[in-house]
Amino acid sequence: MADKAMTKILIFGGNGFLGGETVVELLALNTFDITVVNRGNWKNYDSNIRIRPFVKAFNIDRESSTAVEQLHSAIGNEHFDAVIDFSAYDTDVVKDALKVLEDKIKLYIYISTDSVYEVCLPSNNDLASETDSIRPLDNDEYERFRRKDSYGHKKLKIEEVLFRRQSKSNNNWSYVILRLPDVLGPRDSTDRWWFYQMWIQFYSSIQKPLETSTQLRSSYVYVNDVARYITYILSKTFLDSSTIFHNQIFNIGCTEIISIQDLLTLIIDELNLNSLHIPIQYNPNTEVDFFPSVTRGGINISKALSNEFNWKPTPIKQVVRETIQWYNDAYGLYPNDRSDIVKRIRRTLLKNNESAYGKFLYEVNQYATQSTIKRKRVEEKKIVAVDSLTVNSDHGDYRQEKLFKHSDM
């Protein structure tokens, strides 16, 4: 019996925070043939060994004036079942992609953002729903929103391009748009999480209260959940031949709507550092203003949560626990990335306080060393040594001197 053909996926990005996790999730199923298009930067943590060897990769700058020609040259007449676009922040790059791919694809998954609601008419609902992405008709108000959040404006413009192009296309392709809130999890290329975690873990050296610029309650999403959901959408569409996701827009996120103070408190709790009584102060002018990235609050995820669409988010406490555990290992695994966060904390929090910086640096390095030792001990326990194994056979008994069995690491 012939093997079933692999589902062919073209990914714009695929080497960063969200894209990398999605590629790994897809590769694990061994049913997807993956091609990635990016600028060739494989420096995000371990992407160069975790992803790069297992995909076909083309180095193309989508902002280049020759991007269309480069993409044409790279893929030739090859057709793909789906495109996943993690790296579009301007309408031109999506238009260019469709010039090449519109007659070669069946599904276009676009990774958008809850920031689109920042440039839309305010909703009467507490939480923004997918149907709340309505632009103001008044030009002055439109421009005011655009200037307020250019990122949300550009992402919504891309969504609008996909709507129009799909509705007018003579080719049989569909879109799925995923609107994500702030993303949490391992390998965050913005380093926001690790900054907060390191600040809290070494508060006794830094001696700077945590700061927040708002008390707004907003949504978050776990990077692993996003990767799993994209994989689920592709599996339903191409392995189960379902059309339920065709031309759909989804808000996806955790069920909990929390403030940044709530998030920091969860980190403190998980690190078991409540005894330090780390203060969290309100400072509208803080230099550390990572979360939230929106001003209108959380998103309504009830559509994705429905039985039809089957979004299953990880509880926020588990997200915090798993993310902390990963970064605890990262202290020893990724010294260059650790050093970047240390320098950033020095510039932002410690500035001219060399004494505090010296103590902080020493404790971070000590922790990194201990983390490495602990990780190696755990790995050693995965190796089961059998000193002697008696094997009965037709030729009598014999003794194998030593056998090592290595479990997956």
TrEMBL record:
Domain called NAD-dependent epimerase/dehydratase: residue spans: 9-253
Protein name, UniProt field: NAD-dependent epimerase/dehydratase domain-containing protein
Biological processes annotated in GO: monosaccharide metabolic process
SUPFAM superfamilies reported for this sequence: NAD(P)-binding Rossmann-fold domains
Highest taxon of source: Eukaryota
A molecular function GO annotation: UDP-glucose 4-epimerase activity
UniProt cross-references to InterPro entries, sorted A to Z: Epimerase_deHydtase, NAD(P)-bd_dom_sf
Organism: Rotaria socialis
GO CC annotations on file: cytosol
UniProt-listed PANTHER family: NAD-DEPENDENT EPIMERASE_DEHYDRATASE DOMAIN-CONTAINING PROTEIN (PTHR43725:SF32), UDP-GLUCOSE 4-EPIMERASE (PTHR43725)
